[in-house]
Specification:
- The protein has about 350 residues and is α/β, with parallel strands linked by helices.
- Helices cover about 40% and strands about 15% of the residues.
- It has 2 domains: about 5-140 and about 330-345, Rossmann fold (3-Layer(aba) Sandwich); about 150-330, Glycogen Phosphorylase B (Rossmann fold).
- The two termini are about 25 Å apart.
- The chain is elongated, with a radius of gyration of 22 Å.
- It has helices at about 20-35, 55-60, 75-85, 105-110, 120-125, 150-155, 180-190, 210-220, 240-245, 260-265, 280, 295-310, 310-330, 330-345; strands at about 10-15, 40, 50-55, 65-70, 90-95, 115-120, 135, 165-170, 195-200, 225-230, 245-250, 270-275, 290.
- β6, α5 (about 120-125) and β7 (about 135) form a beta-alpha-beta unit.
- The strands form 2 sheets. The protein has a 7-stranded parallel beta sheet with strand order 3-2-1-4-5-6-7, with helices on both faces. Strands 10-9-8-11-12-13 form a 6-stranded parallel beta sheet, with helices on both faces.
- The model has no long low-confidence stretch (mean pLDDT about 95).
Length: about 350
């Protein structure tokens, strides 16, 4: 699509072809913000219908006014510096940080050159050596909503109608704690024959052996019917799989932010999550789910079992989870808060 330069106020780069959490964030937010401000994306691997411009055009923007360059990766921060200081483009440089670790000297240098920084959680902000605006991610609460009829949905998806379904969705790898979930569900299934764990996701090449070991572990226990490995599905189909669940588990050992608990809770599904990423800022202990230490299968199993054994509490938590998402985690709220940062960066903007 052709977008006049005088309508472009913000450029959100995506310098990675492969689908990632950052790419998904851009795809969710840009269309929502484009209706309110002149926000476009740039870079490869973006949907054709997303408001976007080419990298060449982003690098040759007129110098008539300031615009915002909103980076989310090191490469994008570096490109923003090149555009401003070597090519003379008038970009205010903004970076969103999601990582929860000590940054390398190079990353710290890049961050220090930004005009402003957003952190996706309080934990993330604590790792930054400069002030940041904390803006928690939001989700599409209309797409991720409780099902009209769960029994029919399960039948459509080929899932056991009367089982207690516990889901774990996302990449299959050690960092994501898939093995902890499998071990916890083995313990739960031994005691509760109605319990059924669903592992859905993709194992990339370096993690294929890890996935095979988990499948073999389940087979050795004779629990193939109680812990089921499902193929990854398209992003647009994910809401239905959350809606089919009784409980969702986020077993990560390490995480930057982690959207899956939000997606589950928005569907009215309580969550058992580790205290990794921003999970303890998302899940309210005892109200919308349970929080357990990372890497501890016995504690995770105990939390899962306790909730499955208390259907009234489980239902109450599901209602509370949905209410919390509507009150605090709408995608529209995230977009508005980010646009507030854009507006402050553009205050006093005057054509040359």
């Amino acid at each position: 699509m052709s977008i006049p330069p005088d309508r472009i106020e913000v450029v959100a780069p995506n310098l990675k072809r492969r689908l990632s959490g950052v790419t998904a964030t851009i795809v969710r937010l840009v269309p929502l913000m484009a209706g309110r401000m002149g926000v476009v994306a740039t870079g490869p691997g973006l949907p054709d219908d997303l408001p976007h411009i080419s990298l060449v055009r982003a690098a040759t923007m007129p110098r008539d006014r300031w615009r915002v360059w909103h980076a989310r990766r090191n490469t994008e921060m570096l490109l923003g510096l090149v555009l401003r200081h070597l090519l003379g483009r008038r970009y205010r440089l903004l970076f969103t940080s999601a990582s929860q670790r000590h940054h390398t000297r190079y990353t710290r240098w890049l961050i220090s050159r930004m005009d402003h920084v957003i952190a996706t959680s309080e934990k993330t902000a604590a790792y930054l050596q400069r002030p940041a605006t904390v803006i928690l991610h939001g989700i599409d609460t209309e797409t991720f909503a409780p099902p009209a009829e769960r029994a029919r949905l399960r039948a459509d998806l080929g899932l056991p109608r009367d089982a207690l379904l516990v889901g774990c969705f996302g990449r299959i790898r050690h960092q994501k704690g898939t093995d902890v979930f499998v071990e916890a569900m083995i313990r739960v299934a031994r005691e509760n024959p109605r319990a059924c764990g669903l592992v859905m996701g993709r194992a990339t090449e370096p993690h294929r052996d890890y996935e095979q070991e988990l499948r073999a572990r389940v087979a050795r226990e004779g629990l193939e019917g109680h812990i089921i490995f499902l193929p990854e599905v398209a992003v647009g189909e994910m809401a239905r799989w959350y809606q089919a669940l009784d409980l969702f588990v986020a077993p990560q050992r390490r995480e930057g932010f982690g959207l899956t608990p939000l997606e589950a809770m928005s569907c009215g599904v309580p969550v058992v999550a580790t205290r990794a990423g921003a999970f303890d800022e998302l899940v309210v202990e005892g109200e919308t789910g349970r929080l357990v230490p990372p890497g501890k299968a016995p504690e995770m199993a105990a939390a899962i079992k306790a909730l499955l054994d208390a259907p009234t509490l489980l239902a109450k938590m599901g209602t509370a989870a949905r209410a919390r998402m509507l009150a605090r985690f709408r995608l529209e709220r995230e977009a508005e808060e980010i646009m507030g940062v854009y507006r402050k960066l553009l205050e006093g903007n005057r054509p040359l």
